[in-house]
Design brief:
With 201 residues, the protein is mainly α. It is 57% helix and 0% strand. Belongs to the RecX family.
């Protein structure tokens, strides 16, 4: 499937005029019949997609909470996928790019977040392919360099634990975290002790 490069854009693009993002204004007060579940589902999805991309699972959960029948939900969500308003693959790619560069999260943490948002394992694997171990290690070094100053004055062991623990919480493997922190401390002139017994927690 060809991915849209402009999403999330105008959420009403590619939809019929009746699919506006605004909820139907007091239909009962105008003597109109109640809004049917399909119209409700489209309006809910359009509102949720305005300004922020979401996965199919996130939208399905939102529709279920509002009492939209499953068959109606599936039909509406499939239509949104057809016109490009839902694209879990593009969502995963954008999430990895944003969270890795913005918050410094490693592949393990990113994959966990995408799983929680209902992205399929194959799409997560594809998105993780955007990062390799060299990129991860470079980002880990940047994170450590940013925090290094705040640990000065502490004993080396406490510095190592604090900095490596910070990387562990962002999803970096223990081996990489220790390697990056040790190198940073050595470059500052700290003695390279044997850091056996390290516990990132």
């Amino acid at each position: 499937m060809t991915r849209r490069t402009d999403w999330p854009g105008n959420a009403s693009e590619g939809m019929d005029a009746e699919d506006s993002g605004s909820p139907a204004p007091s239909r009962a007060g105008k003597g109109l019949p109640p809004q049917d579940p399909g119209e409700q589902a489209r309006a809910i999805c359009l509102r949720l997609l305005t300004g922020t991309a979401r996965t199919r699972k996130q939208l399905a959960d939102a529709l279920a909470k509002r009492g939209i029948p499953d068959d109606v939900s599936d039909e509406v969500l499939s239509r949104f996928e057809e016109v490009g308003l839902i694209d879990d693959a593009a969502f995963a790619d954008a999430w990895v790019e944003s969270r890795h560069h913005g918050r410094g999260l490693a592949r393990r943490a990113l994959a966990r977040e995408l799983r929680n948002k209902g992205v399929a394992p194959t799409l997560i694997e594809d998105a993780m392919g955007r990062l390799d171990s060299d990129q991860e290690e470079e980002r880990a070094r940047e994170l450590v360099a940013r925090k290094l100053r705040s640990t000065r004055g502490l004993e080396r062991d406490r510095r190592l634990r604090r900095l490596a623990g910070m990387l562990a919480r962002k999803g970096y493997a223990e081996g990489m975290a220790l390697r990056v922190v040790r190198r940073a401390l050595e470059e500052e002139g700290e003695a390279a002790d044997d850091d056996l017994g390290y516990d990132p927690l």
